[in-house]
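Sequence in, structure out.
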Amino acid sequence: MALRFLGTTSEHGNCPTLYEIEETGDLIVQGDLLTDPKHLAQLRDVKESEAFVVIPRELLTRYAPKE
């Protein structure tokens, strides 16, 4: 499956970055892992295969598809 780069608010190639899986329209977000134990403890229904990243709101408001 091909990824399409949507945009980034980072400088010098760091994260965060937003991509789209072209065939499905699903989004992939690249960002720093959420590591704060207080925040992790508040997450619900977490599967072992899941990870959580911190995304600046600006990245989504600027680059997330509007449809």
